[in-house]
Each structure stands twice: as structure tokens, then as C-alpha cells.
């Protein structure tokens, strides 16, 4: 699956940006609060406007403090998947249950330096594991290949049936890096600059899919 990240699009034309990637599997929306990460993007009112402008399932990536308080609002608004950071969630099991009760898939994300193993038990309550392949906060950064081992470890647990999550990767994914990530066992690839930096975002998605399948 390919999830274009709207962070790399023109924020004055978000509806057009959503419509230019009709073939996307998920539309990835980065919510940053200026505290959990040193950058500030958009919040619930703008995410609601995006939800109203597209039929693509919206994948909200919340890079915020206190997701226990804020995340459910995104699920109630109609996001398909709502991902919170393991480093920020106070009660991740309750949070996952609340997200699911509000009709969304629940995602848990780990920064490049955070292993997922301490969270394996509570990942049984989650649908998505988002492995960050850059330090969260900004688009256009370089892919960190050292996270691929974490992806392989997660893949093994999924394949053995111990975990049931979609393995998603986020940061620095482009036509070169997507092959390594696919080989390591990623199911869903977030791509910001590689999609919205291209002249034709729709074709960029196709090209990424081709490379991931090789
Ligand atoms: C970074 C965000 C990413 C970002 C990816 O903190 O979570 O989703 O938009 O952008 P690229 O693909 O340009 O690295
Ligand atoms: Zn993201």
C-alpha cells in the first residue's frame, strides 16, 4: 500500500492535493503540535476539511503530546486509521480501545531509536505499527536504513501469527529506498516528497508500487 503524505503538498490547496492521488491506498496526514516534535502543522478542524474532500481512507499520524486526550476526536471525525506515538501515550491500551470504539483502526508509532518489543503485548490491541525511518517532525529527510532490522523483527512476529498489525514505514521513502523497505517486510509505505514533489503525483505512486513489487 502507498500512503502519500500531504505534508509535502501545497497547504493552500489541500483538497486538490487529495484529489491528485486518487489511486492512493491511504492519505497520510501529519498532525504536529510543536511540543512532541519541533514543528507545528494542522489540527482537527483542517483534518475534518480534508476528510470532507476525499474518499481515500485517511491515515492520521499524531505527533503530539497527550494523545490520550486528543486522538479520539480524529476517529470520531471519520479518520480510517489514527496513529499515536508509543513515546507519548499514557494509557495505550485504553487509547486503542477508544479509537476502535469510535470506528477507527488504531496505530502505534515508534521513533527510530525506540524498539517496539517493549510494546508487543499492547500491540495486540492495535491494527497498525508505524515504524519511523526519520526523526519525526519534518518531511524531506534522509531515510535511516538502520530501522530496517526493526521492520524485519516486526515482520517475523506478524508472519508467525504472534502479532496482527499492518507494518507501515514513514520517512525518506522514494524509488530507491522503497525496495529495501519492501524486502524487509513493510506493508504500507508513506511517501511525502516522492509523491508531491513529482510533476505527476499519480504516476509517482504507480512508480513506487512497481519498485516495491520487484
Ligand atoms: C515526518 C512525517 C512524515 C513526512 C514524510 O515527521 O511523519 O509523514 O511527511 O515525508 P517524506 O516522505 O518527504 O520523508
Ligand atoms: Zn507521518
Helix-strand layout with pairing:
Blueprint: E1 2-4, H1 14-19, E2 27-32, H2 44-53, E3 58-63, H3 67-77, E4 81-85, H4 92-101, E5 105-110, H5 120-123, E6 128-132, H6 148-159, E7 166-170, H7 177-184, E8 188-191, H8 193-196, H9 201-213
Parallel strand pairs: 1-8, 2-3, 3-4, 4-5, 5-6, 6-7, 7-8
Helix pairs in contact: 3-4, 7-9
The structure holds D-xylitol-5-phosphate and zinc ion.
D-xylitol-5-phosphate (DX5) is lined by residues 5, 7-8, 28, 30, 61, 134, 136-141, 170-173, 190-194.
Describe this entry's structure for a reader.
Its EC number is 5.1.3.1. One of its GO terms (biological process) is pentose catabolic process. Keywords: Carbohydrate metabolism, Cobalt, Isomerase, Manganese, Metal-binding, Zinc. It comes from Actinophytocola oryzae. This protein has an eight-stranded parallel sheet with strand order 1-8-7-6-5-4-3-2. The model has no long low-confidence stretch (mean pLDDT 98). It is built from nine helices and eight strands. It starts with a strand and ends with a helix. The chain is of the alpha/beta class. It is globular, with a radius of gyration of 16 Å. The chain has a single domain (2-213), classed as TIM Barrel. Helices cover 36% and strands 19% of the residues. The structure holds D-xylitol-5-phosphate and zinc ion (ZN). Residues 5, 7-8, 28, 30, 61, 134, 136-141, 170-173, 190-194 line the site of D-xylitol-5-phosphate. Zinc ion is lined by residues 5, 28, 30, 61, 170, 190.
